[in-house]
Design a protein that fits this description.
Largest sheet: 5 strands, antiparallel
Radius of gyration: 55 Å
Order of helices and strands: HHEEHEEEHHHEHEEHEEHEEH
Number of domains: 3
CATH topology of the largest domain: Heat Shock Protein 90
Oligomer: single chain
Structural class: alpha+beta
Shape: rod-shaped
CATH architecture of the largest domain: 2-Layer Sandwich
Number of helices: 10
């Protein structure tokens, strides 16, 4: 069953239960009222007879006058014998001893259901009894009984029930129309959400549901919109990661193909004696170089994955900044000179220290310096260090080609290259160095930033906490 029909059914059930309950209560109320009103009327007749001190002749005349109102009058003496209407037979009131004693004590009695008349005729009547006392001595003289056929009361009740039935049918029809309209209104809002959900499954993340802030449906719409925004962002991130994965596979294939092609060509040349004897040593050296390049690329990727999964273990110690920077300069001086570059080292104090893992710190600085050399020709590369508020600040700057500001966030991705036309040169850069540097700095509890201007150069700044700051983190 569809939700709209369930709602309609629920509304109708609630309506029917409410109407039936209310109807039963009202019917009982009105029936009681009708009987009470009839009893008051009959008591009024009986009391009028007593107050007027009517004789039997007067009662007979009065009874003839009110007979059209379906009122029957009877009188019983103190011995419970019928004295009016006059009859050749003896009749009693038929009251129980308990009820007769109540009359003797001066209490009025009302009987709503009697199936016999005063002279034992078959008729359903409502009867009231009012005790009659002697005005002079106050002795109980008998009772005045006034009755009315129930048929007249039932006619009034029937008219009332008919009116209630019509009111129920009319209100029921209105309730059905209202339930259809209201259920359709609520269902339309659900249908709107279902259509929006289907749109999302088709990849449409621009869908938006109106939020009027009125009820739970609007709260659901608000949460739905948040979900769509989150899905949109997640989808964009998935697409970005997928593009990076594809680019990664292409770059790995490209980086591996170059050395493998070189090695394969040399091996074929050696196999077919196509390489002269005097060039064989150089060829073998090239194979060693390309092999080391592939090993370095594999190791760098393994290191990067270890750092991302926090599997790397750092052995931190206090290191002399001057010695560290000087070591990096000596390792890369030859490479820098091949491109016409010079490397300068400047430390604010000979006693300046760096709290870091020795091998990983050298790896960071070598990668940054290699990057500087890669994009600088006939320029200067500077390695500097100074202390600043519990941190050691290390800068690697160059006077190279620089980068655009929008390119800076992307340089930390694996295999990202600011210059698409760049290919591996004699020093075999893999394009993963900066990603490794960022991860290593983070593992040290530090921070790395970069500033750059096109044609002016680039500055990488590393902040590493000193021993006290690092141990406190």
């Amino acid at each position: 069953m569809k939700y709209v029909y369930k709602q309609m059914l629920a509304f109708l059930i609630v309506f029917v239960v409410t109407v039936l309950t209310t109807g039963i209560i009202f019917i009982r109320f009105f029936v009681t009222n009708i009987y009470d009103e009839k009893e008051r009327q009959l008591f009024g007749y009986a009391e009028a007879i007593i107050e007027e001190n009517m004789t039997l002749a007067d009662i007979s005349t009065g009874t003839a006058m009110i007979s059209k109102q379906d009122v029957i009058v009877a009188m019983y003496n103190k011995n419970d014998r019928l004295v009016y209407p006059i009859s050749n037979q003896t009749y009693s009131s038929g009251l129980s001893d308990r009820d007769w004693n109540r009359l003797v004590q001066g209490n009025r009695i009302a009987l709503r259901q009697r199936d016999r008349g005063f002279m034992n005729e078959e008729i359903a009547i409502v009867t009231v009894y009012v005790p009659l006392f002697n005005y002079q001595n106050g002795d109980f003289e008998g009772t005045v009984a006034v009755a009315a056929p129930i048929s007249g009361i039932k006619k009034d009740i029937s008219h009332m029930q008919t009116g209630m039935l019509w009111a129920t049918l009319i209100s029921g029809g209105m309730a059905i129309l209202f339930s259809i309209g209201f259920a359709n209104y609520l269902s339309q809002r659900i249908v709107r959400m279902r259509k929006a959900t289907n749109a999302i499954t088709q990849g449409d993340f621009e869908i938006y549901l109106e939020d009027y802030g009125r009820d739970e449906f609007d709260e659901l719409s608000r949460d739905f919109n948040k979900m769509v925004t989150s899905l949109k962002e997640s989808n964009a991130e998935i697409m970005r990661q997928e593009n990076l994965r594809r680019q990664f596979m292409m770059d790995v294939a490209h980086e591996m193909r170059t050395p493998l092609t070189t090695i394969n060509g040399i091996l074929e040349g050696l196999e077919h004696d196509m390489i002269p004897e005097k060039r064989r040593a150089r060829s073998i050296e090239m194979m060693h170089k390309e092999t080391r390049r592939m090993i370095r690329m594999v190791n760098e990727n393994l290191d990067y994955e270890k750092m991302r999964s926090e599997q790397i273990v750092l052995t931190k110690q206090i290191l002399n900044a001057q010695e560290i920077l000087q070591t990096v300069k000596e390792q890369l001086q030859t490479k820098a000179s091949s491109k016409g570059n010079t490397i300068g080292v400047s430390v604010s104090s000979p006693h300046l220290t760096i709290y870091a893992d020795y091998d990983r710190l050298i790896q960071m600085l070598v990668n940054l310096t290699n990057n500087a050399i890669q994009f600088t020709e006939n320029g200067r590369i500077s390695l500097t260090a100074h202390a600043s508020d519990g941190f050691t600040v290390i800068k690697v700057s160059d006077t190279g080609i620089g980068m655009k500001e929008e390119e800076i966030p992307a340089i930390w991705e694996r295999f990202y290259k600011t210059d698409p036309s760049r290919r591996s040169d004699a020093y075999s850069e893999t394009g993963i160095g900066l990603a490794i540097v960022k991860s290593l700095v983070a593992n040290h509890g530090g921070e790395i930033t970069v500033t750059s201007k096109i044609g002016k150069g680039t500055v990488f700044t590393i902040q590493l906490p000193n021993k006290e700051n690092s141990d406190g983190q």
